[in-house]
Amino acid sequence: MSRTVFCQNLNKDAEGLAFQLYPGEVGKRIFDNISKEAWGNWQKKQTMLINEKKMNMMNPDDRAFLEKSMVEYLFEGKEPEIEGYVPPSK
């Protein structure tokens, strides 16, 4: 059974995530306000960021940086800076 959320990233009603994929308050906010589609878009960018910056997910600083980038992307529409990546124009 899919659920619909008003996606703050895409600015439209869209299919929500099936369950909370990220822990804590941020995860709840994402679950309540971000669609499956927007989350998928973020996952691609997250992978590029981790690879480009050679991040280590065991490192708390890297995790904090990623979380900040995720919140800025999902809720503020701010593209992460990924070298050589140009976001498609809207």
Automatic annotation (TrEMBL):
Belongs to the Fe(2+)-trafficking protein family. GO terms for cellular component: cytosol. One of its GO terms (biological process) is cellular response to oxidative stress. This is Probable Fe(2+)-trafficking protein. GO terms for molecular function: iron ion binding. InterPro entries: Fe_traffick_prot_YggX (IPR007457), Fe_traffick_prot_YggX_sf (IPR036766). NCBIfam families: PRK05408.1. Could be a mediator in iron transactions between iron acquisition and iron-requiring processes, such as synthesis and/or repair of Fe-S clusters in biosynthetic enzymes. Necessary to maintain high levels of aconitase under oxidative stress. The keyword Iron applies. It holds the Pfam family Iron_traffic. PANTHER family: FE(2+)-TRAFFICKING PROTEIN-RELATED. It comes from Thalassotalea algicola. Keywords: Iron. The keyword Iron applies.
